[in-house]
Write a structure and sequence with these properties.
The chain is α+β, with helices and mostly antiparallel strands. Helix content is 40%, strand content 27%. It has six helices and six strands, in the order ααβββααβββαα. Strands 1-2-3-4-5-6 form a six-stranded antiparallel sheet. β4 and β5 form a beta hairpin. α3 runs antiparallel to α4. The longest helix has 16 residues. It is globular and about 40 Å long.
Length: 170
């Protein structure tokens, strides 16, 4: 009997842990985790990442959400600069990066250990940005949005193992 109670408690905890936050469910009905992974840099844990999609089925042109839970403190400037650097590595030209820097700065805030940054791609392909569940801004620039999410989800990502873990192709 004791084992049955422990199994039921573990199952209840797992079910609760996989429920999408309300701000994700608002844009992605029946959101479920597609995959999760970690980013490490020279052995340092940077963040845990989760990809959410309707019924747990990811498609690049369908609503989905990327959730990052940071393990370290980073300034907004550091996050923006790293994002632009990753876009540059994917072949985005410098003129476009200069144009996009203010967009990047408008949606990335300072993060502390334990903070969550979430990016929701909506049905209209706009991106909604959230910091610890609080809405920050919406970006409607399709090229920016595609390249931003490609940092993690694109075929030219610099973190292919994380991409595979997120999209469920391990």
């Amino acid at each position: 009997m004791r084992y049955l109670v422990l199994i039921l408690l573990a199952w209840a905890n797992m079910a609760g842990a996989s429920s999408a936050p309300a701000y994700i469910n608002a844009d992605i009905p029946q959101a479920a985790i597609v995959g999760t992974g970690s980013l490490r840099w020279f052995g340092l844990h940077i963040y845990e990442a989760s990809l959410w999609a309707g019924s747990g089925h990811y498609a690049v042109n369908r609503p989905h959400a990327l959730e990052l839970v940071y393990s370290r403190d980073f300034s907004a400037d550091t996050l923006a600069d790293e994002g632009l650097k990753q876009m540059r590595k994917q072949g985005v030209d410098e003129a476009r990066l200069v144009q996009w820097k203010p967009l990047m700065q408008s949606v990335l805030l300072d993060v502390k250990k334990g903070d969550t940054l979430t990016v929701v791609q909506r049905e209209d392909a706009s991106l909604g940005f959230f910091h610890n569940g609080r809405f920050i801004n919406t970006i409607r620039d399709g090229d920016f949005n595609r390249h931003f999410l490609d940092i993690w989800l694109g075929e030219k990502t610099t973190v292919p193992a994380l991409r595979r873990a997120l999209i469920g192709r391990n």
